[in-house]
Amino acid sequence: MSVVSAAVSALAVEDLSVELPRDGTTIRPVNGVSFTVERGRSLAIVGESGSGKSVTLRAILGLLPKGGRITSGHVAVEGRTLKESRRNLGRGRDAHLSIVFQDPLAALNPVLTVGAQIAEAPRFVLGLTRRAARDRALELLRLVGIPDPVRRYDAYPHELSGGLRQRVMIAVALSSEPKVLLCDEPTTSLDVTIQAQVLALLSDLRRDEGLALVFVTHDLGVAAEVAEDLAVMYAGRLVETGPVSEVLSSPKHPYTFGLLESAIDVDTPDRIPLAIPGSLPDLSQLPKGCAFHPRCFLATPECTTTDVELRSVGEGRASACLHADQLTIGTRRS
Amino acid sequence: MSAEAVIGVDDAGESIVARSSFWSRARRSPTFLVGGSLTSLILLILFLAPVLARHNPDTLNLTSLLSGPTSQHWLGTDDLGRDEWARVLYGGRTDIEVGVVTVLFPLIFGVAIGTFIGYVGGVVDTIVMRVVDVVLAFPFYVLIIALVAFIGAGVHGIFLAFGLTDWVVYARLTRSSTIVARHQDWVAAAVNGGVPRWRVLLRHIIPNTISQSLVYVMSDIVLVILAVVTLGYLGLGLQPPSPDWGAMIGEGQAYIFTNQWQVLIPGIALLLTGTGFSLLGDGLADVLRPQ
Fold this sequence. Notes:
The complex is a heterodimer of chains A (334) and B (291).
Chain A: E1 11-22, E2 25-37, E3 42-46, H1 53-61, E4 69-77, E5 80-81, H2 92-95, E6 97-100, H3 104-107, H4 114-124, H5 130-143, H6 149-152, H7 162-174, E7 180-184, H8 192-209, E8 212-217, H9 220-226, E9 229-234, E10 237-243, H10 244-249, H11 254-262, E11 311-312, E12 318-319
Parallel strand pairs in A: 3-8, 3-9, 6-7, 7-8
Antiparallel strand pairs in A: 1-2, 1-4, 4-5, 9-10, 10-12, 11-12
Helix pairs in contact in A: 4-5, 4-7, 5-7, 7-8
Chain B: E1 6-9, E2 15-17, H1 22-27, H2 30-47, H3 49-52, H4 84-120, H5 122-137, H6 140-151, H7 155-165, H8 167-182, H9 185-192, H10 197-234, H11 245-252, H12 261-288
Antiparallel strand pairs in B: 1-2
Helix pairs in contact in B: 2-4, 2-12, 4-5, 4-7, 4-8, 4-10, 5-8, 6-7, 8-10, 9-10, 10-11, 10-12, 11-12
């Protein structure tokens, strides 16, 4: 997206497709997904549960569940294509990717102190001495805004509150010095005030450390707060991409439009949220043509037959809708 | 019950939660306290046997055969006039030593194998688990007695028989909890962060899976002591004259109608030891349960 700099993207995902076995058939939770994230920028991938957003992140890290397979696509970090194997596009520090999971209690080892977990990568991966690794861990604890890091170093995860745990998780993710931080709904398990603090922390890290962030969430408010770019995912495909403010103010895909209509807006409390009719289709029997057409108010016979790819609908924006031009700024709020 | 107790709020508005160390949780488990105290008391008494015994367990006192408790012999004497108190103490020393030493190899080997196959999976896992199934399919005592009879009675026979068979229990326990631990996000995070495999296994997986085996090892010690005693009773155990509760029960059996002491005393000692270790195991399970 950046035209000025000739530098390569921090993360480039191209044509990623994943297959998972389910109930005797094979489903395709991720289908031809492509996106790029520049250094120091952040992309939010939004969608309903089951839209494939988390599987996308896990596929990038090679953490697919048993039987899962990457059928196409490649991932490059800072221009370097990650080694491809059947289930695993990239792994570990070589990939310069780290992940922050949704539930920090499940993502931290209950029997190790948080300090030991943060110091582990510096010591055993970056090769620091025990003392230097400890100093590095304390520095990371300070960086993620944990008060009294020296005391917290020796705490076990269950002794910390949810917000502190998520900060620790972020410190663990940063400990291997990644270029790209993947966040899988990192604030879903937190209450709103702590959520705001964690989002602010992630934004600071992006700005100060030049990290590229990929943020998976189902919360458009979170996406608006943390991201510059937005990618909307539906039934395994990206259906709309673009700068977050533009996408949210004038969606170019009826699904994005529906998501916005169904959100509660505190600024216009009188507006009644409208649900998108129907539900996410069964991934093993996707409708022909555009997967969204059975739920779409713009659907025409053409939509049931034509496979729609993302295509440009203006500066930096793309939509996978045949009727994108029918959605104008005035449509919403009418 | 959660061991967390919010004790205040720090400057960032985050709750400060009280540390709950091993000992603070241990103090709140009555099972652990009773089991721990009983076991420690028994171990202490057995450790102090040379001081407490007052007699040599092998010295014959032919002027006092099959006597009841006297001021000279607190718990009486057996059919050869040996002091029962001294024999219970020294017999317990041997039995518990054999029990503890015997489970060490199965514990270490079983945990290592279980961790390996649980983590690697695949064909290796299938093959090892079939071996485990075969061993488990045999009735325990039949297998042990057959092996000891084949290898030869005595301490070596017991070590070998248990070493060959007992590891399967630890392997099975550890394998299943390793499979669970392997899929945890923290393992994924560590592997993804580039932490070497050996370290992931030693620091992330085994500490989370070992508690079940540590709990089981307590019951296993009791099981081995019982087996040693049973083998002793059958004449396949520790060889005379070294005192052993099983042999004492076996020798006392002939006089069970006239002099119950000789069977009851080692029996009660065995019961107390078994209770102590079992309660300690149950208590450990409470205390070690991950938070």
